[in-house]
């Protein structure tokens, strides 16, 4: 069973040279984000960044730990160090820190009493869906649900991560956009001659948004269109978990379903690391190489748009950009972000 192994030791200040507005950083820091694949986190410290905060993650006796990447003695990155047993060791003066952040050893003064001030800032940590999650100022766990990950009828798939030189809010909105299929994904699964967007409804829920979209836009590549029954209608179900998580269920022919969890890590206001756990109940014995290639192509096509949008940040003020009827989900997403307390321009 997953557990939150630790809590924040002190209130984390807004980082120096923060790329987010103070208002947005304060809101975003209350939520949980993936920072690394679980298979990347070992007993060798790994440097990562979340919301402009430099972190280190590693395993102590098999359990993941996330802390500030900063020895409190002389400010050396702990990611330069190593792990002994369940303790991370600073490479500068050999200070040892336990998983709860407490300093346990000062080699220069082995018999001295250790001040309680010598304590790392350690963050709540959860391992789930093949990812390591943390929060900078939140406490209660609020990960987006992905129940099929633990369902034996489904195959778990964790494609490679994708780094995007763009804003995470823009990436989420692109993931929810149903009008861009024919234009952005014409080389992967959609067609320029099938650009019509049928009417659909968006439901505001207690967790965020729910939308069901039915169309003739196939999810098969062109070479696999023969698998699609004549007249088949594709159902895509979106669930949005603001501020920065969304889930898509695609209903294939013959009872097949593919689940996609779109969970970007906002490294900064202009850089995003995209994680996308997936699961499917069909083609479970098929090689995954072509599946990885297709999904990389699709997300790369989206990334090209996100990296070139202006303004770079997601404008929450609805008067700052034009909208069409097909934008119902993104319009409601922006409204929800504003209700969370985000600034009108998302970032400044």
Describe this structure in words.
- With about 350 residues, the chain is an alpha+beta fold.
- The protein has 5 helices and 20 strands.
- It has 2 domains: about 35-135, Rieske [2Fe-2S] iron-sulphur domain (Rieske Iron-sulfur Protein, 3-layer Sandwich), CATH 2.102.10.10; about 145-340, Naphthalene 1,2-dioxygenase Alpha Subunit, Chain A, domain 1, CATH 3.90.380.10.
- β2 (about 45-50) and β3 (about 55-60) form a beta hairpin.
- α2 packs across α4.
- The longest helix has 18 residues, at about 290-305.
- The radius of gyration is 22 Å and the shape is globular.
- The model is unreliable at about 5-10 (pLDDT under 50).
């Amino acid at each position: 069973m997953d557990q939150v192994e630790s809590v924040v030791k002190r209130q984390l200040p807004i980082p120096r040279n923060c790329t987010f507005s103070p208002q947005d950083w304060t809101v975003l820091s209350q939520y949980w984000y993936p920072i690394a694949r679980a298979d990347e986190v070992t007993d060798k410290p790994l440097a990562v960044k979340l919301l402009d905060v430099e972190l280190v993650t590693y395993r102590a006796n098999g359990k993941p730990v996330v802390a500030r990447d900063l020895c409190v003695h002389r400010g050396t990155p702990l990611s330069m160090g190593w792990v002994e047993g369940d303790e991370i060791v600073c490479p500068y003066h050999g200070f040892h820190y336990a998983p709860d952040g407490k300093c346990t050893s000062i080699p220069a003064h082995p018999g001295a009493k250790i001040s309680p001030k010598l304590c790392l800032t350690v963050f709540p940590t959860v391992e789930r869906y093949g990812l390591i999650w943390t929060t900078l100022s939140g406490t209660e766990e609020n990960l987006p649900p992905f129940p099929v990950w633990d369902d034996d009828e489904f195959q778990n798939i964790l494609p490679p991560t994708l780094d995007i030189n763009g804003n995470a809010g823009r990436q989420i909105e692109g993931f929810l956009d149903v009008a861009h299929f024919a234009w952005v994904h014409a080389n992967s699964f959609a067609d320029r001659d099938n650009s019509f967007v049928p009417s659909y409804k968006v439901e505001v829920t207690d967790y965020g948004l729910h939308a069901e979209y039915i169309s003739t836009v196939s999810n098969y590549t062109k070479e696999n269109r023969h698998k699609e029954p004549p007249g088949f209608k594709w159902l895509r179900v979106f669930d949005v978990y603001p501020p920065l998580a969304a889930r898509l269920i695609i209903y294939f022919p013959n009872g097949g379903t593919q689940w996609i969890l779109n969970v970007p890590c906002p490294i900064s206001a202009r850089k995003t690391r995209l994680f996308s756990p997936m699961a499917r109940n069909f083609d479970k014995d098929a090689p995954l190489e072509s599946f990885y290639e297709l999904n990389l192509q699709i997300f790369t096509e989206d990334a090209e748009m996100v990296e070139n949008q202006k303004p770079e940040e997601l404008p929450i003020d609805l008067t700052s950009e034009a909208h069409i009827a097909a934008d119902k989900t993104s319009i409601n997403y922006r409204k929800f972000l504003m209700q969370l307390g985000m600034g009108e321009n998302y970032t400044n």
